[in-house]
Every structure is written in C-alpha cells, then in structure tokens.
Amino acid sequence: MFDQPQTGSVTDAPSSRLSSLKIGNIEIGFPIVQAALSGYSDLPMRVIARRHGAAYSICEVMLDQFLLALSKRQKTKHFLDIHPDEHPVGGQLMGAEPEQFAAGALKLVDAGFDVIDVNFGCPVKKVLGRCRGGFHLSQPTVALEVLARTRESVPDYIPVTVKMRRGIDDSNESRDKFFTILDGAMAIGLAAATIHGRTVEQRYIGPSRWAFLREVKEYVGDRIKILGSGDLFTAQDCLNMISETGVDGVTVARGAIGNPWIFGQCAALSNGEPLPPPPSTKVQADVMREHFDLCESTYPENRAPLLMRKFCIKYSQSHPEHEKVRLAMARIRSREDFESVLSEHYCEDTAGQYINPESHRSQEE
Asked: What does the alpha-carbon distance between residue 299 and residue 295 come to, in Å, rounded to a whole number?
C-alpha cells in the first residue's frame, strides 16, 4: 500500500486553517478545488468532487466554435448541464478568434456557469496547431484582445479568469510575454489566474516549477488571485504548494480522477486532524455507483457505461487487487457488466489502498 492519505465522503468542505478563497464576488471557501480536465470534468465528476469537499469545480474545456453551434439535442446538451447542487461552477473556454471567444463566453453565462475561465494553457499539439490554448502565450496582443473582449461581453457580476502555463518555453522572450499577458489581465479586470508550473513545450513531462508560482504570487500581491497547478497528486502536495508558494489556492487535476477523497484529505490535513485510512472497498463501490447513477442521468443510456468505464479504471487504483480489478473494469460495456465486477471484487468490505502518485505522474491530463 502507498503512503497517501484518503478519507471517506463529506458533504461540504469543513472549516479550514487555510485562508478562504474568493474569486471576484464569488465566495469559494476551501481553496483546494477541482480543475478543468478535458474528457473528465463533466457534470458527474464535478458533482462527486463537490460531495467530497471540493468547494468549486470547472467544466471540461469547450471550444468557442463548438459552443456557438451547440443545440439542445440530447446528444450534446450535457455539455452545458449544471447540477443544482454544484454551484459555484466555472465554465472553461478555448478558441482562436477574439470575437468568437466573447460569443462563446455569453453562451456559458446563459447556461448558468458562475465563472468564465479562458484557457491559455492547453499544450496538446492539435490545439496549438489551430492557434488555441497555450499558443496564445506566444502572442500577447491577441491574448489580451481575447481577455478584453471576453471581460467586456460578460456581465460585471460574472468573474472572468484565465488558465496559463509559465510560457511557451523557458526563453527570456517567453517569460516576458507571460508577464505582459499577466499585467494585461490585471489591467482588464480579471479576478484570478491559474498558473501551471510547466511550459507549453514541456506538456506533462518533467517537474512543475513551483518556484515560478511563488515568484508570480509575490509579483502580483493582492491585485489578482493566483491558483497553482501541476504535480498535485496527494493531499500533502496540495498543502505544500500553498505553503511553499503563497498562492491563494490550488486546482487538482489528474490527482482527482477516480480519487474524490483527496479533497476531504486536504481538509483533514489543513485542520491538523489525523488522516483516516484509505476508503474501504464498500465505500469505493458506493461512490462508483453514485457516479454511475449521475452518468446515466446525464448521458443517453447507451453512452453512459462506456464513458463511465474510464472512471472505473481510475477508481480501481484504490482496490488492494488493483491490476486484476482494472482489467475487469476495462471490459465493462453495460450497467450489468459494472455490477458484475462489483459483485466479484467488492463483495466484501475490505481495506482499500492509497493510490500510488507515480501512476498519475506518468499520464497526461
């Protein structure tokens, strides 16, 4: 078993010794939140995170062009679905053209998202090739026009935030462009910036440079909230980032997939409480069933099991027979298949295991 703390389910984040987070006029509270994760942070994952102590979450990134073409059809309506229990929730937007960005942001506002987050951080090659995501860090003029138009189009009461990496690469030119965009974001009136400690060129390889996060927070002071991102796979990682860098909060990405217990762990640690044992197999099964129920109510019946499968594979990491269970989860095609795996591998309430952080470090967000 791995030396990583876990907790059981909690409904709301407990009071914490960490400073409460506020983004614009939105009271977040506990400052360790659920990051946007392409292909993962849909309504079911966000709700599960919320029920386990995440006071705020961000939806998976959506393209501005996709948003503008989005209809109310059953096949696509889930992208804009928001559960009544998950507010405050952020909608993340990515694109190339400033005009479309602004129109896409309004679509997210109309859907009911409480915060609009602009993605300047995605390092995926096909995204960069279309002048989206992290590519904007190479063109401050366009990046700032995107932010300005988005801020102007969105009602004043809706905070606008931005997700960035520390630059395209580690050159002085890239660094200068990063701070040009950051300065502009503050002047435009953005409420917060989430900073990933890797460059776009690094993608997910190599360590996240936390020292850069500390430098950024010292540079901006209280002018804008800074949230840190990168290499957050355990509760202790999250608290260490806040302690070592002074950031106002952190967003947990890969470390929360199949591991919603991380938010309760963070709350326990921050309150000086002893860390509970990992979730038992019964607790794991209960949470997976809850997640599956949400998935079935969000997606068409034939899609839900296939989408849930990737989460089940991640959840299996807490099982003491992880490899065997992972292979079984990879074969599920229906709710019946899922229940069969639970009957075989989760029938007895046995101790779980802590997730090995290295299993996340080797995968991409």
From this structure: 6
Token representation of residue 238: 């999250």
How buried is residue 286: exposed, middle or buried, by Cβ count under 10 Å (0-12/13-18/19+)? middle
Q: Which residues pair with 58 in a beta bridge?
A: 90
Neighbour tally for 156: CB within 10 Å: 9
- pLDDT tens, residue by residue, 170-181: 999 999 999 999
Beta strand pairing status for 62-63 and 21-23? unpaired
Q: What are phi and psi of 150, to 5 degrees?
A: -65, -45
Q: Which residues of 184-200 are buried (b: 16+ CB within 10 A; e: fewer)?
A: bbeebebbbbbbbbbbb
CB 128 within 8 A of CB 135: yes
Tokens of 324: 């065997």
Q: How many CA atoms lie within 13 A of 353 on its CB side?
A: 15
Name, in order, each residue with C-beta under 8 angstroms of 75's C-beta and a sequence gap of 6 or more: 300
Q: What is the pLDDT of residues 314-334, one digit of tens each?
A: 999 999 999 999 999 999 999
Angle, alpha carbons 142-148-151 (nearest 5°): 140
Q: Taking the mean position of all CA atoms in its chain, how far away is CA 348?
A: 32
- Which fold would CATH assign to domain 21-270? TIM Barrel (3.20.20)
Single out the residue of 316, 295, 319 nearest to residue 305, CA to CA.
Answer: 295
Q: What's the first-to-final CA gap in the chain, in angstroms? A: 24
Residue 261 three-state SS: helix
C-alpha–C-alpha distance, residues 249 and 27, integer Å = 13
Q: What is the pTM of this model?
A: 0.90
Which has the closest alpha carbon to 332: 349, 298, 308? 308
Residue-range domain boundaries for the chain? 21-270, 281-345
Segments in the chain forming alpha helices (H)? 43-51, 64-69, 98-111, 125-128, 140-153, 172-188, 210-220, 235-245, 261-270, 281-298, 304-315, 322-329, 335-345, 357-361
